[in-house]
Amino acid sequence: MTRAVLDTNIIISSVFWEGKPYEVVRNGILGKYQIIISPEILEEVVDRLRNKFKFPEDDIQQLVDILLTYSHLVETTSKFDVVKDKKITRFSNALLMAKPTT
Fold this sequence. Notes:
By secondary structure, the protein is mostly helical. The protein has one domain (3-97). It has helices at residues 8-16, 20-29, 39-51, 57-70, 86-97; strands at residues 3-5, 34-37, 71-73. A three-stranded parallel sheet has the order 1-2-3, sandwiched between helices.
């Protein structure tokens, strides 16, 4: 099965708009591919929704529940600092921990 690591911007954009990011998340939920996220990415999504967008706590929890139900959560046991941008590093670590399926 194809797997896709979703970053914070894709997830948040899918909440507010029905464009390409929405379709990416929707298709993952429908099982067209497996969504991969990490605790760090999930934490960043929650933080941004709570602090930047003042999203209601109940709605944040509902999104977290949906993501945890329809995604594969990868623990980033190895930390790679290959770039200076910490946002990209969170994404890269999740990508590297998502081992290929056979």
